[in-house]
Amino acid sequence: MNVESLRDYCLSLQGTTEDMPFGEETLAFRIGEKIFLLISLDTGNRFNVKCDPELAVQLREQHNEVQPGYHMNKKHWNTIYMDGNLSDKQLREMIHHSYTLVLQSLPKRLQDEIRAVE
């Protein structure tokens, strides 16, 4: 997976928007104004995603490409390196997990609005 295919996948998720709130080097993907993925455009080989804390530990133990979130809350965020042995399917699953966690944290009304468009 590269930055372009990652961007395409994120934008395919219902209600996703993108912006650059931290400057031109970091692209953020949001659902309902909450970030579910950050990617550095400078390096382009890693991204940060939210993760259930127990699953985060498991993934870090299983895959060298999964590390505690760089510049993030390390309990709830992982940094994923795309240039390792993880498949595109595994990367998409981690992105979708993050998207779902953030969507579920939104107010019910907003969740319903986002899902209604699907």
UniProtKB/TrEMBL annotation:
<dbReference type="GO" id="GO:0003677">
    <property type="term" value="F:DNA binding"/>
</dbReference>
<dbReference type="InterPro" id="IPR038056">
    <property type="entry name" value="YjbR-like_sf"/>
</dbReference>
<keyword id="KW-0238">DNA-binding</keyword>
<dbReference type="Pfam" id="PF04237">
    <property type="entry name" value="YjbR"/>
</dbReference>
<dbReference type="InterPro" id="IPR007351">
    <property type="entry name" value="YjbR"/>
</dbReference>
<dbReference type="InterPro" id="IPR058532">
    <property type="entry name" value="YjbR/MT2646/Rv2570-like"/>
</dbReference>
<protein>
    <submittedName>
        <fullName>Putative DNA-binding protein (MmcQ/YjbR family)</fullName>
    </submittedName>
</protein>
